[in-house]
Amino acid sequence: MTMANTPASVCPRYHHAIELVGRRWTGAIIRVLLAGPVRFHAISQAIPEVSDRMLSERLRELEAEGVVTRRVVPETPVRVEYELTEKGRALQPVVDALMHWAESWVEPGPDRAAS
Amino acid sequence: MTMANTPASVCPRYHHAIELVGRRWTGAIIRVLLAGPVRFHAISQAIPEVSDRMLSERLRELEAEGVVTRRVVPETPVRVEYELTEKGRALQPVVDALMHWAESWVEPGPDRAAS
Question: How far apart are CA A42 and CA A48, in angstroms?
């Protein structure tokens, strides 16, 4: 415990990190991708509440952050998959810690059944 | 690794949890409060970019979620402190995991120096 009136200022890198993973739908998308490479449609099915437009936007943001890569598999028809990078896979302990917290502390409620 | 086309749907409790802690400034506020009970002004000083109005709103949300308690200490003048509940303190491993990730993967950049 530090003194009540002298908290350290918040690390900007932590601040960036928590607001990146906490952005609307991003945490859910990362969780889906932790299971392995996945196609756009499958992410969309796993998170039915997110629109395709929003999902594209979030995936582009995660690509720009170096968390996700988009891979084109040269098949007929062409297959496009999304996959976590090493940086993205390194989020596993964060997701695990948050899952554990949610299981212990977040009550399942009717307002959360569809979100 | 699961099959690319069969990801599990995302647990609503996890989804609620990650978007709670990732809400703008909330992750930073929780980090400050993990150090111990703290007055409004001191949180504000630790996160100079957040307005008092936004800080009040976030603290009220965290109170409503049972993560933070507001405590009035009967002194002259009256002292108001904010403190994490047991539910709030249980977020320590989440914050630790995210700090660790941020230190390893988020580059300190000029755009983050002030956020």
Answer: 10
Can you tell me the mean pLDDT for B51-60? 96
**pLDDT digit string (tens) for A58-96?**
999 999 999 999 999 898 888 889 999 999 999 999 999
Q: Which residues of B touch A43 (CB under 8 A)?
A: 7
Does CATH place domain B13-109 in 3.30.70.1350? no
B87 contacts chain A (CB < 8 A): yes
Strand partners, B72: B80
Q: How close, in Å, is residue B85 to chain A by CA atoms?
A: 11
Strands (E), chain A: 38-39, 68-73, 79-84
Structural domain spans, chain B? 13-109
State the smallest CA–CA distance between residue B59 and chain A in angstroms.
16
Whether A73 has its CB under 8 Å from any CB of chain B: the answer is no
CATH of A37-105, one of 1.10.10.10, 1.10.246.130, 3.40.50.300, 1.20.1250.20: 1.10.10.10
